[in-house]
Amino acid sequence: MICSDAFKATxxxxxxVQGAPGYRYLTTPHPVAGLTPEQxxxxxxxxxxxVAELLAQ
Amino acid sequence: MTTPDGNVARExxxxxxxxxxxxxEYCYEHDWTDGLPVVPASxxxxxxxxxxxxxxxxxxxxxxxxxxxxxxxRTAAINAAMAGCLPEYFPIVLSxxxxxxRDRAAKGGGWQSTSGPAxxxxxxxxxxxxxxxxxxxxxxxxxxRPNATIPRALGLMLRNAFxxxxxxxxxxxxxxxxxxxxxxxxxxxxxxxxxxxxxxxLEPGTNAVSATLTRTYEFVDNRHTQDPEQLLNDFxxxxxxxxxxxxxxxxxxxxxxxEHAQMLAGAGMSKSDVKDWFIEHVGRTExxxxxxxxxxxxxxxxxxxxxxxxxxxxADTFTPYFTxxxxxxxxxxxxxxxxxxxxxxVFGEWSNTSVEIEPAPVPATAKGG
Lengths: 57, 369
Hints:
The structure holds two protein chains of two kinds. Chain A is built from two helices and two strands. Chain A has helices at 8-17, 37-56; strands at 2-4, 26-28. Chain A is mainly alpha-helical. In chain A, strands 1-2 form a two-stranded parallel sheet. By secondary structure, chain B is of the alpha+beta class. Chain B has helices at 17-29, 43-50, 73-83, 90-100, 104-107, 127-131, 145-161, 196-199, 228-239, 258-266, 271-281, 286-291, and strands spanning 60-64, 69-72, 118-124, 183-185, 208-221, 252-256, 283-285, 318-320, 330-332, 340-346, 355-356. Chain B starts with 16 loop residues before the first helix and ends in a 13-residue tail after the last strand. The model of chain B has no long low-confidence stretch (mean pLDDT 93). The interface between A and B is small, with 11 and 12 residues.
């Protein structure tokens, strides 16, 4: 799971109520909503290596 | 006990204020409040609330699966009592909750939205006068117990039953002033049109609640013209502003003051005619949308937020905001002392329905008498 870093508190709390406290997820800098498609691609490239690392665990 | 005018009440029946404060502080310590003091709810008081409804205390009003929390009739009653409701308001609280939850956005996580949407609760029927529900001067202001405490009950239910608290599951960015305080009766007596609950299909004279989640409130003050077309254009300007646009699908309503409603009705316009006029005239040109970086909205579809470097359509292309009558709820409320109305923005989708308020069950001792 990837969310923008402004939602960390909610994401951590959701992990708790879903029975997975401490669930590991990734963040990307906030904001995301106004990004152009090119900027979204750059964000994806920036986080891709971490996604692979997380999935391999 | 000291009284608000600076005196001291010394009657033998005066309740002990220190004892009351102790109980209020206990509620604060347990994080059960919205910041204002709550009424500590005893089991005896809870029973009085539960006696006003035929619904089982264990009935689940709503369940939020993703939070693994639910609210029962009993929990709702406790929070209504804490909000300062009288027991006789409780059937309205239950109906108000049901009415809000007919809103698609409320079912879809709207309560936790960054918008921090406020429930708008409108009451029709004779129960308004029976319970002292304000429908005239100051409907958006303070001063009336049912108007203030019924919406507050919903806020406390969200907080205490579902655990939606600020900075965690409540992700509100700024929110709406008076988020838990928007509840009033329709001014049926001075409205030239059929009551909202009648328009949505209930029998005239039915006690009913209509509700939805809302985002913004902005007044339209027009004491300047007697021309209904000019008046409607003034409303259209506020309804058409670009700042409230997120997606193509829009829904916004008007709480008309009696004077504005009567002027329009006097010109021969029904509520339906007013909605038709808004459907035709509310919207913006491509140039306006583009100036605000919102030309992507005109293409519609979820997520259509991005501005474009290229011109998408000719500058004078008009994008209407509304497509159907259900996009434009119209209510008449407030005093007849000035021509000031309120435009409000629906957060998601108004259900265009009303929920009947169920009368309290007849006590066993009174049956057959």
